[in-house]
Amino acid sequence: MTLSVRQPPYVIPSYSLTGDLLAYRACGLQYRYHNRGSLPPSTPVQLWFGEFIHGVMEEAYLRWNQNRQSFPWYWNPDIRAIEIHIDRRLRARGLYAPPNLFDRAGTNQLIASQRAEASINIWGPHLFPLIADAEVWLKGIRPMLKPPSGKPRADYYEIQGVVDVIGSVQLANAPSGNLILHYLHNNPQIQREMSKLTGTTYEIIIDYKGMRRPNLTTQEWQDYERQILTYAWLRSQQPRTSPVIAGILLFLNELVPSREDIKELYREVKSSSPTTDIVPIGPDLQALCSWQDGSPTNLSQPLREQRSIRIIPIAPSSLQASLQNFDSVVEGIEDSVIRESSGGGIINCWQANPARRRCTACDFKTFCLQSKQPGPPTAP
């Protein structure tokens, strides 16, 4: 009697937009250890603040949606209770606030709390009335490109992501005086897309970023745009949804910039050709040039608002270019997986992408041959 052999399961690899694709683009070697090796970072400063500000904005919206409390909200008692609630949630997951960023005792409003308060009071009045849904999971299937090193694990891969906010706007009932809609309606490309609408409702995708506005020359500037475009494509795959005409990135650190943020802005403005798209002028430029370390920033609120929001029009051509880019990123990850499983070493199979700011906080800089950490390598 011949026994049949059970075929191995056919598994479609699943890739997260932020956890896999953007992380691999940032540094392939760091991605290998953190994401595929399940080695958490020892000092997750960016991770903690990103989770913190996302949680604060989501909880603030839920409370506003229940009682429609008018703005502004005050740190005590309105916002402080939300911060403590989110901090406890993060601590239960093993994420602790780095020193000098968040004061659990509430005796001193440190920069994390200042940014949370500014985010709620500056963008909350305009953002919350537009929200149709929050924390929306999106999934889609894409064909897998063949990696150079061999046959891929599957013919398709799953791409997934979580949209922070999906806003729904009815053309006839759009709220007047809304700052977000003001930015949208003043964008010529978005106006052209709106003129093509056949229905009366459109959607916008909004993503919070717990960071400063990226430099125009950085990889992040393009990657975050592609992230929003991919979100828009995933949303379009869902049935009975209105067309997405724009994406919005909110760089919430710009509302309360740190001294390092101010130094970086000064370097971007004073370079031979400015490397930021929102350049201070008039009194803001004078305040930036005369700023001294340790003194208040004194940048105007309109400038901080402009630097914290980035509008991304959604057009079919840009959607396809974004999807093709992420197909190539998945191809690179699959190629590294194949080469490592064939006996290649981790360092040889996964490409590092050294950058001084990233390498300084990286746990693997002591043995990474391409690390750009300041000073000579130290023992782990």
Could you give the topology of this structure?
Layout (H helix, E strand, L loop, with lengths): L13 E3 H10 L1 H9 L8 H23 L7 H18 L18 H17 L3 E13 L12 E15 L8 H7 L2 H8 L5 E9 L9 H18 L7 E8 L7 H12 L12 H8 L10 H8 E5 L2 H26 L4 H4 L6 H5 L20
Parallel strand pairs: 1-3, 4-5
Antiparallel strand pairs: 2-3, 3-4, 5-6
Helix pairs in contact: 1-2, 1-8, 3-4, 3-5, 8-12
Structural features:
single chain; 380 residues; alpha/beta; 6-stranded mixed β-sheet
Description of the structure:
- The structure is a single chain.
- The chain is of the alpha/beta class and 380 residues long.
- It contains 14 helices and six strands.
- Strands 1, 2, 3, 4, 5 and 6 form a six-stranded mixed β-sheet that branches.
- Helix 8 (219-236) links the parallel strand 4 and strand 5 (244-251).
- Helix 1 packs antiparallel against helix 2 and helix 1 (17-26) runs antiparallel to helix 8 (219-236).
- The longest helix is centred in the last third of the chain and has 26 residues, at 316-341.
- The radius of gyration is 23 Å and the shape is globular.
- The model has no long low-confidence stretch (mean pLDDT 87).
Which of globular, elongated, flat, extended, rod-shaped describes the shape?
A: globular
Largest beta-sheet details: 6 strands, mixed
Multimer state: single chain
Please report which band the strand proportion falls in: under 5%, 5-15%, 15-25%, 25-35%, 35-45% or over 45%. 5-15%
Task: Assign the structural class, choosing from mainly alpha, mainly beta, alpha/beta, alpha+beta, or little secondary structure.
Answer: alpha/beta
Catalogue the unreliable spans: none
Question: CA-to-CA gap between the ends?
Answer: 59 Å
Tell me the number of helical segments per DSSP (H or I, 4 or more residues long).
14
